[in-house]
Amino acid sequence: MVTIILLLSCDFWAVKNVTGRLMVGLRWWNHIDEDGKSHWVFESRKASPQDSKTVSEAESRIFWLGLIACPVLWVIFAFSALFSFRVKWLAVVIMGVVLQGANLYGYIRCKVGSRKDLTSMATSYLGKQFLRQTTGDDQTS
Q1: Burial of 107 (0-12, 13-18, 19+ CB in 10 A)
Q2: Where are the chain's structural domains?
Q3: Averaged confidence pLDDT in the chain
Q4: 0.90 cut: is pTM over it?
Q5: How far is CA 116 from CA 39, 113, 123, 129, 134, in A?
């Protein structure tokens, strides 16, 4: 049980700090400022001609497939442990779900961006569309 939790922790660290940055150009972390407030930082590498050489489509698909499949697998393990009444293994399974889920959540936030950015982008886009329709400036291409 201890070995599995240690391996889960090593996997969490490796995915968060190494493979995410190298395979897809994404990273996330927690920063605590001088006031003691916690700030989550989600970064995505800027697209440049050199990045297309370093980040391949196949590596990106493998990364995302593994990132999505692992939490699903741990949830299946959780139901299996729960319904077979193996409560002692439930702690390990919950640890797996939490660590893998945290990585999935962090990388989705990196890929999509923060919700504030999405809201402001959507509002800006809808505002432009509304303005274009009210002024009669329909550009068809």
Answers
A1: buried
A2: 1-44+51-134
A3: 82
A4: no
A5: 14, 8, 11, 20, 27
